[in-house]
């Protein structure tokens, strides 16, 4: 870890805890800052805050008192989940207090080269693939960010021999000043998180922050099939590497005659790739570019792609039972992700869907439901999804109480050769704490059959 003096003797407020806040507070305390932590959860329900208190860090819990900002803080480290519309943040902006997220701290103390991955969809799969390829190529990867351990925690143990591979959200990227990945990836860009960002333009600009500090010594890997994304990053100083599943691109990764190629060099045949789905092919191409730029051999890349079956909860193959294949795509918390999952299969599908009602309808799924033979719905959006299925001409439409009860019903409706797919198109919070919990319950129910 770099022994920086940037925060020594400075008054810093860490706003919001969870894993990122705990890591940021601990690191700043270690760097000699005068740290105050403010979290909304009461102290007696807050083991994270209690642990920081034992380290000698000042903790204020149970509310976000705006008058706290009168104490002369020089920097605020904000939990990414706290929106800029929060009164505390709005007041801090008015007072001119700089606001960062913990990934900025990670960059400042890391001795390792950084590969940063962002985009609307595909971040976790791409991040995991890159780590697998770097591991197979003996490039010492450390996985961090939304997919694993908090980046500012990983950075403290990173050495120059490591490569930090960080999955980054738009929320995190809004809070950077110096953060500069040597290799940055923009997987794709669609409408998302507009309740947080307000407009698509603001969301896009937050994503583009991943490249704002890059120089001509760095690389930016971009989806060459999205003109709006290409336009967004034109001002970047990084060397641009494009990937495309639809056309041959110069200085990039593409498919020609069913061969994946990087700069005209054949890497692997598409038929030898295990991971299903056109959307995953995009993730694979961007991961190949990052691996090649990191010096990984073709043999190592090919070995990973011929065995890698996916990330848990992301079109994850669970098991086969009596000729039926079960897939867990609980991470599909919006219709875009469910469209991708449905497009990955040519076989008849029994779809399990439903969850938190955010006020939207699901009619944009209709063109993707052509090989769905039955739908089983649950949660707050159950009725809406049943209505969409009726419009799509799906005869078998069955509401159930939850994911666990959906599995045996799906099995009863299925035939040999069918796909039974959990791809909810909704967040999980109406019935489950996380999409991971929802996916784990699905997996457990499948194994009980």
Structure description:
ATP binds at residues 119-125. This is UDP-N-acetylmuramoylalanine--D-glutamate ligase. Its EC number is 6.3.2.9. Helix 5 (123-136) crosses helix 11 (278-293), helix 5 (123-136) crosses helix 12 (298-305) and helix 15 (403-413) packs across helix 16 (435-448). The protein has helices at 18-30, 47-54, 87-94, 102-109, 123-136, 151-154, 170-173, 194-197, 200-208, 227-232, 278-293, 298-305, 335-343, 382-391, 403-413, 435-448, and strands at 11-15, 34-39, 58-61, 75-78, 99-100, 113-118, 141-145, 163-167, 183-186, 219-223, 239-243, 252-256, 259-262, 265-269, 316-321, 324-328, 349-353, 372-377, 396-399, 419-422. With 449 residues, it is an alpha/beta fold. Strand 13 (259-262) and strand 14 form a beta hairpin. The chain is globular.
Domains (count): 3
Named CATH architecture of the largest domain:
3-Layer(aba) Sandwich
Q: Structural class, from secondary structure content?
A: alpha/beta
- The count of β-strands is 20
Spatial order of strands in the largest sheet: 7-8-6-9-10-11-12-13-14
**Proportion in β-strands:** 15-25%
Kindly report the average pLDDT value: 94
Low-confidence runs: none
Please outline what is shown here.
With 449 residues, the protein is α/β, with parallel strands linked by helices.
């Amino acid at each position: 870890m770099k022994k920086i003096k940037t925060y020594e003797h400075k008054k810093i407020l860490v706003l919001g805890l969870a894993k990122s806040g705990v890591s940021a507070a601990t690191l700043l305390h270690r760097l000699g800052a005068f740290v105050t932590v403010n979290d909304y959860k009461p102290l007696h329900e807050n083991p994270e805050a209690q642990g920081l208190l034992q380290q000698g860090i000042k903790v204020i819990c149970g509310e976000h008192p705006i008058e706290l900002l009168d104490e002369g803080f020089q920097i605020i480290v904000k939990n990414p989940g706290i929106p800029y519309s929060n009164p505390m943040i709005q007041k801090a902006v008015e007072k001119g207090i700089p606001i960062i997220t913990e990934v900025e701290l990670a960059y400042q103390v890391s001795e390792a080269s950084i590969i940063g991955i962002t985009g609307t969809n595909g971040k976790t799969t791409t991040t995991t693939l890159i780590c697998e390829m770097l591991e197979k190529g003996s490039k010492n990867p450390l996985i961090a960010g939304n997919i694993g351990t908090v980046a500012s925690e990983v950075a403290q143990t990173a050495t120059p021999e490591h490569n930090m591979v960080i999955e980054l959200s738009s929320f995190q990227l809004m809070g950077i000043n110096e953060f500069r990945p040597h290799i940055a990836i923009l997987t794709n860009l669609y409408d998302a998180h507009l309740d947080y960002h307000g407009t698509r333009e603001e969301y896009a600009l937050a994503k583009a922050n991943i490249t704002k500090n890059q120089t001509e010594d760095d690389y930016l890997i971009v989806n060459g099939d999205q003109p709006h994304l290409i336009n967004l990053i034109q001002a970047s100083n990084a060397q641009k590497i494009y990937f495309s599943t639809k056309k041959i691109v110069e200085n990039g990764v593409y498919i020609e005659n069913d061969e994946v190629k990087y700069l005209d060099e054949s890497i692997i045949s598409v038929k030898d790739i295990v991971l299903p789905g056109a959307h995953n092919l995009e993730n694979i191409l961007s991961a190949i570019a990052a691996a090649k730029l990191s010096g990984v051999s073709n043999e190592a890349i090919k070995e990973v792609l011929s065995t890698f079956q996916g990330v848990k909860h992301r079109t994850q193959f669970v098991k086969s039972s009596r000729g039926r294949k079960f897939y867990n795509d609980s991470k599909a918390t919006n219709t875009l992700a469910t469209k991708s999952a449905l497009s990955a299969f040519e076989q008849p599908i029994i779809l399990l869907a439903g969850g938190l009602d955010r006020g939207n309808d699901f009619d944009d799924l209709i063109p993707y439901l052509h090989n769905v033979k039955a739908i089983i719905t649950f949660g707050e959006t159950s009725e809406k999804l049943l209505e969409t299925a009726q419009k799509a001409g799906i005869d078998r439409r069955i509401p159930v109480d939850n994911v666990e009860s959906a599995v045996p019903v799906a099995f009863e409706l299925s035939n040999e050769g069918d796909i039974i797919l959990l791809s909810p198109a909704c967040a999980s919070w109406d019935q489950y704490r996380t999409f991971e919990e929802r996916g784990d319950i699905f997996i457990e129910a499948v194994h009980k059959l």
